[in-house]
Automatic annotation (TrEMBL):
GO MF terms held by the record: carbohydrate binding; rhamnogalacturonan endolyase activity
Record protein name field: rhamnogalacturonan endolyase
Keyword set, alphabetical order: Lyase, Secreted, Signal
Bilayer-crossing regions: none
GN (gene name): LOC115753822
Length: 675
């Protein structure tokens, strides 16, 4: 009863909010469509569905959306006097489509558009029309198709300025093996209209065109282009690279493009990240030159081969990607882009509080009542920091498939539900799909990962409270010195200014996300042309003196060499019989192996991380990729009274400028206290 009441109340609130947002929008926008109508859901006409042999049209009086039949590609979106917000010059299959990258085991990967073969009307009322286009592999069909069933769904609602989409991917039990490398939906927008892109408050501007990129000079890899002759001369001499517009899943809520004539916005809104891959800090592409807008549900960007999705021995699997909303808005000629960006953010909030949606007609998408809640309180126990337990301030806490500690960051097949605890370490994860999960956490300011010792079973309507969870981060002795902040990124270290001739001026704030600029890896060679970085504990400041990435050095003629960093530190007293420990947290690694030497640069390595890392986050301007943690014992007999040195050699290969690691945090611990 209470829940129903709550839901009704929430529905009302949602209705009011939506009406308020729309009212504001109508009052100021005076768009042709809107001014002809009164405000209020019932003032809008019912949604019309027209099914033709080769196309399906859904029209709610605000947007008219056209799909190919039975392919289920979005071929047209008519809105506010623009015949098609999508690129009419592209073929119909190249405007709004789902695609994957996949392969059979051992074969090279291939790219595939998901094309429907059967069309079905799922719901058809005045309030909501939902359609389904299913693409299905069959044993007799040709081998170009991945052995999957994909049900592409699209929804248009009465009075709603846009459309919703989602897809149900299925690998039925017993079907052939495959690997999947990427799954996403792509919208290619009308290039005559959309020139302004907005990813965040800090990243937005008039963008180059696809033609500008084509005439530019390709830099160190094909995605990065120096604009040499752009149609908009202000962009000349700037770099464009789609990876500069990436963001973490947790921040990927609304992004898109704006046309200035007429003033119209096209937005990808992601109200929940439950179906995105590999947790809240996994990064991926958003929008980029094309003009293109993506929703990447799964890829191995910023992760590499450690994040993959393989089906073997007929494994049964099903997952709903989405729903997302494509939101469109408009303004009057005297308004500007900021108006539409602010309105789109408002719509994003409206969509977020409406999650889970109550208008989706798939039994694979549970309603609010069919989901559960898991709450609790986490604290941190580290007796070398404090004698009593500490509240896990702002801890990230999440539910993901059961697995090893930290396994969420490579988990691709399941759903994940994350939240951030309050200052007291209290958390509540709402709207969790029924299922069996592991409960995982990490706490800013501490190294390591937490996992609850038992599986968590969420049932429809269940509300579970886990009190007194205690995380004991890795620690074996008192801190003698430390470099950086344990926050899983290298952002606090020295990030140099970009080369003036290789800037991307999409960033409004030069200090905020400078790490997304192109070519910063080469600055290492400028700063350390002969001798590598030496960091002296107690004198140097990691914000200034610790380069953000331990990269190779360019010695000219496209030749790179491995580099060795040295940390000097002073010990007044040495416990020659004690065991010291070097704790090392790494925020990203690409083709790396860090060898550690103590006080002798020529010795056989004292220890090593072994080969690790394929996340390519240095080239992709990511500031972090996957998180790794290492601990190395250092016998006191290896240390002296006075100055000691630890050598960190990134020693694996040096074929490119992008190989190396980004450290998160390094700590040297004294021998354990005896109690
Ligand atoms: C496909 O067809 C072959 C030969 O008819 C059969 O042996 C196999 O079991 C079928 N596979 C599936 C997944 O239906
Ligand atoms: C955290 O705990 C303090 C002290 O117990 C309390 O005053 C405060 O309200 C709590 N904060 C939250 C967000 O629960
Ligand atoms: C948790 O669930 C997984 C997968 O179902 C299972 O393999 C594992 O044994 C379970 N762990 C515990 C502690 O029950
Ligand atoms: C720029 O970014 C930094 C770091 O995120 C932030 O502290 C600062 O307030 C920003 N400055 C402006 C002008 O937005
Ligand atoms: C650069 O490399 C090429 C090919 O290996 C070689 O022929 C040339 O002599 C090198 N130039 C310099 C300046 O080292």
């Amino acid at each position: 009863m209470e829940e129903k009441g709550f839901r009704r109340w929430r529905g009302l609130l949602h209705g009011l909010l939506t009406a308020a947002v729309r009212l504001l929008f109508l009052l100021s926008a005076c768009s042709v469509v809107a001014s002809a109508r009164e405000v209020g859901a019932n003032a809008y006409p019912g949604v019309q569905l027209l099914v033709h042999n080769d196309q399906v049209v859904m029209d709610n009086g605000i947007v008219e959306v056209t799909f190919s039949n039975p392919g289920g590609d979005v071929t047209g979106i008519k809105f506010n006097g623009i015949d098609n917000l999508l690129e009419p010059r592209n073929r119909e299959t190249n405007r709004g489509y789902w695609d994957i990258v996949w392969n059979r085991p051992g074969e090279p990967s291939t790219y595939m558009r998901i094309e429907g073969t059967t069309f079905k009307v799922v719901a058809n009322t005045d309030d909501v029309v939902e359609v389904s286009f299913v693409g299905r592999w069959s044993n007799s069909s040709d081998s170009h198709l991945a052995p999957l069933i994909v049900d592409k769904r699209f929804v248009v609602r009465r009075g709603s300025s846009g459309l919703y989409g989602y897809a149900i991917f299925e690998h039925p039990k017993g079907w052939p093996d495959l690997d999947v490398g990427e799954a996403r939906i792509v919208f290619k927008l009308n290039g005559q209209k959309f020139h302004y892109m907005a990813i965040s408050d800090e990243r937005q501007r008039v963008m180059p065109t696809a033609e500008d990129r084509a005439s530019g000079r390709v830099l160190d890899y094909k995605e990065a282009v120096l604009l040499t002759d752009p149609s908009n001369s202000e962009l000349e001499g700037q770099v464009d690279d789609k990876y500069q517009y990436s963001c973490e899943n947790q921040d990927n809520k609304v992004h898109g493009w704006i046309s200035s004539d007429p003033l119209v916005g096209f937005w990808m809104i992601t109200p929940s990240h439950e179906s995105h891959t590999a947790g809240p800090v996994k990064q991926d592409l958003t929008s980029h030159v094309g003009p293109t807008t993506l929703n990447v549900f799964y890829s191995n960007h910023y992760a590499g081969r450690d994040v993959y999705m393989s089906f073997r021995n007929g494994e049964a699997w099903k997952k709903v990607y989405g729903p997302f909303m494509v939101y469109v808005n408009s303004g009057s000629p005297e308004e500007d882009e900021s108006k539409l960006w602010v309105d789109a953010k408002g719509q994003m909030l409206t969509e977020t509080i409406s999650w889970p949606y109550d208008f989706i007609h798939s039994e694979d998408y549970p309603s609010a009542a069919e989901r559960g809640t898991v709450g609790g309180q986490l604290s941190v126990r580290d007796r070398y920091v404090k004698n009593s337990d500490m509240l896990a301030d702002s801890a990230y806490v999440g539910l993901a498939a059961p697995g090893e500690v930290g396994s969420w960051q490579t988990n691709t097949k399941g759903y994940q539900f994350w939240t951030q605890a309050d200052n007291n370490g209290s958390f509540e994860i709402r709207n969790v799909r029924p299922g069996v999960y592991g409960l995982y956490a990490w706490v800013p300011g501490f190294i390591g990962d937490y996992r609850y010792h038992m599986n968590i079973t969420v049932k429809p309507g269940s509300d579970m409270e886990l009190s007194a969870l205690v995380f004991s981060p890795p620690r074996s002795g008192p801190t003698l010195w430390e470099i950086g902040i344990p926050d899983r990124t290298a952002a606090e270290f020295y990030v140099p200014r970009p080369y003036p001739g290789l800037m991307n001026k999409v960033f409004k704030n030069d200090t905020g996300e400078r790490f997304r600029q192109y070519g910063l890896w080469e600055r290492y060679t400028d700063l350390y042309p002969k001798d590598d970085l030496v960091y002296t504990v107690g004198i140097d400041n990691y914000r200034r003196d610790w380069f953000f990435a331990h990269v190779t050095r360019n010695i000219g003629n496209s030749t790179y060499v491995p580099t060795t960093w040295r940390i000097d530190f002073n010990l007044q007293n040495v416990d020659f019989r004690g065991i010291y420990r070097l704790q090392m947290a790494v925020a990203s690694a690409t083709q790396s192996r860090i060898s550690i030497r103590i006080n002798d640069p020529n010795e056989q390595p004292h220890s090593s991380t072994g080969r690790f890392g394929y996340d390519n986050a240095i080239a992709r301007h990511g500031i972090h990729g996957l998180y790794w943690r290492f601990g190395f014992d250092v016998p006191g007999s290896r240390l002296h009274r006075g100055t000691n040195s630890i050598y960190l050699a990134q020693s694996r290969t040096a074929r490119t400028p992008f190989e190396g690691v980004m450290y998160d945090y390094i700590r040297f611990e004294g021998p354990p206290r005896t109690h």
